[in-house]
Amino acid sequence: QVQLVQSGGGLVQAGGSLRLSCATSGRTFSSYAVGWFRQAPGKEREFIVTTRSDGLTYYADSVKGRFTISRDNTKNTVYLQMNGLKPEDTAIYYCAARSGSSWYSRVYEYNYWGQGTQVTVSS
């Protein structure tokens, strides 16, 4: 069983930055694909970015150039650095993980989910 624990998030002004963390216990992250999603009120959960077990990444157009995913396998932690935040980035952010070596961008493709963390960007 993989448990994901998220930290970070909070309230920031437009143009500001935040970093989210997603840590796992019990299993190593190195062989897992990890993704980040977000869900705004009244909207479906939206794909943001994923990193494969080999470290390659794939970003949604909405965050490309502003958000960066990275992983520290020694700490079993994946990070989401968010720069240039906009009010429309306001949402609950979730990390997710699954085994496998392909690209995964759909909610149903992930087995394990973090608890979610609120990000609010004020204008």
Provide an overview of this structure:
This protein is an all-beta fold. It is built from no helices and 11 strands. The strands form 2 sheets. Strands 2, 4, 5, 6, 9, 10 and 11 form a 7-stranded mixed sheet that branches. A 4-stranded antiparallel sheet has the order 1-3-8-7, with no helix packed on it. β7 (67-72) and β8 form a beta hairpin.
Record the SSE blueprint:
Elements: E1 3-8, E2 10-13, E3 18-25, E4 32-39, E5 46-51, E6 57-59, E7 67-72, E8 77-82, E9 91-99, E10 112-113, E11 117-122
Parallel strand pairs: 2-11
Antiparallel strand pairs: 1-3, 3-8, 4-5, 4-9, 5-6, 7-8, 9-10, 9-11
- The end-to-end span amounts to 40 Å
Q: Give the low-confidence spans.
A: none
Query: Can you count the helices?
Result: 0
What helical percentage do the residues reach?
A: under 10%
Q: Over the alpha carbons, how many angstroms does the gyration radius reach?
A: 13 Å
Oligomer: single chain
State the shape: globular
Mean pLDDT over all positions:
94
Question: Hey, roughly how much beta strand do the residues contain?
Answer: over 45%
Structural class: mainly beta
Number of strands: 11
Helix-strand topology string: EEEEEEEEEEE
Largest sheet: 7 strands, mixed
